[in-house]
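Figure 2 data, in text form.
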Amino acid sequence: KTAYEIYQCDWSSDVCSSDLARFARDGRLTASFGVAQVAPGDTVDTLLHRADAALYRAKASGRNQVATEAR
């Protein structure tokens, strides 16, 4: 999921709870992160957009990766 989808997620919904159920069933968890730093003039949307772009780069690099925003 993107950072914005996680931010917006209703954890009681079927979509989000299915992720939790899969973890409970499989007992495995992988995590990739996209990191962005707040800049002057940022809005929540611009910050999350940069974090999401970094997250997609992290996921493209494989599991359990961290990527920072491109500047």
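Caption note: The CA atoms of residues 1 and 52 lie 9 Å apart.
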